[in-house]
C-alpha cells in the first residue's frame, strides 16, 4: 500500500472506490500502449483529456506523488499563464509563469481547480479514530511561504467537521497506514481529498 501512495493514479482510484470526495479528474497516461489513454486536445482556454473537458483554471499533476511540480493554468480572462508549485525552497513554494500551454512530455492527472478561501488543510491521522488538522496559506496564492520568527511555516489549528472526521477515518483505513497524512480542500460547501501521504512504522 505504501507503493500505491507514491502513484497519484492509484491514490485517486482508491479514494474513489471508498466513496471519498475527490476533484473531477482524468489521467493522461503517456506510458500506456493504448492511444485512448493519452489523447490530448489543447485549446486556448481548455484541454480535452481522453474525451473529458477541463476549462481553465485547471490543475496538472505528475502521476508520481514524489514529483511536486504541480501547475495551475489560468484562463485568458484572468491574464492567462500558469502558477507553478514546487517543494518549498526558502520562502517560495510557487512562481508565476506566462506559459499557458500544458506539458507535452510525461504522464499527468488533470483535475478541476477547487476554489478555496486561500488556505490548504493538512490532516494527520494516528489510527482511524484520531485526526489532527491545521491550515496554511495555499502555495497557489502568491508562492510566498509565511514563516514565524523562528523560521517555521505558519500553520493554524483547524476543527474538523463530523463529515471530515469520517473522511479521515476512511482515508486511514483505505490506505492501511498507522500514521497517515492527507490534503483537504474545502470548496463549494464540500470537502475534497486531493493528496495522500503515508508513513510506515516497524516496531
UniProtKB/TrEMBL annotation:
Top EC group: transferase
Highest taxon, organism lineage: Eukaryota
Subcellular location per the Swiss-Prot or TrEMBL entry: Cytoplasm, Cytosol
GO cellular component: cytosol
Enzyme nomenclature, EC number: 2.7.4.24
Keyword Repeat: no
Family: Belongs to the histidine acid phosphatase family. VIP1 subfamily.
Name this protein carries in UniProt: Inositol hexakisphosphate and diphosphoinositol-pentakisphosphate kinase
Function: Bifunctional inositol kinase that acts in concert with the IP6K kinases to synthesize the diphosphate group-containing inositol pyrophosphates diphosphoinositol pentakisphosphate, PP-InsP5, and bis-diphosphoinositol tetrakisphosphate, (PP)2-InsP4. PP-InsP5 and (PP)2-InsP4, also respectively called InsP7 and InsP8, may regulate a variety of cellular processes, including apoptosis, vesicle trafficking, cytoskeletal dynamics, and exocytosis. Phosphorylates inositol hexakisphosphate (InsP6) at position 1 to produce PP-InsP5 which is in turn phosphorylated by IP6Ks to produce (PP)2-InsP4.
GO biological process, one term: inositol metabolic process
InterPro entries cross-referenced by the UniProt entry: His_Pase_VIP1 (IPR037446)
Keywords recorded for this protein, A-Z: ATP-binding, Cytoplasm, Kinase, Nucleotide-binding, Transferase
Entry's Gene Ontology molecular function annotations: 5-diphosphoinositol pentakisphosphate 1-kinase activity; ATP binding; inositol hexakisphosphate kinase activity
SUPFAM superfamilies on file: Glutathione synthetase ATP-binding domain-like
Catalytic reaction list: 5-diphospho-1D-myo-inositol 1,2,3,4,6-pentakisphosphate + ATP + H(+) = 1,5-bis(diphospho)-1D-myo-inositol 2,3,4,6-tetrakisphosphate + ADP; 1D-myo-inositol hexakisphosphate + ATP = 1-diphospho-1D-myo-inositol 2,3,4,5,6-pentakisphosphate + ADP
Organism: Callosobruchus maculatus
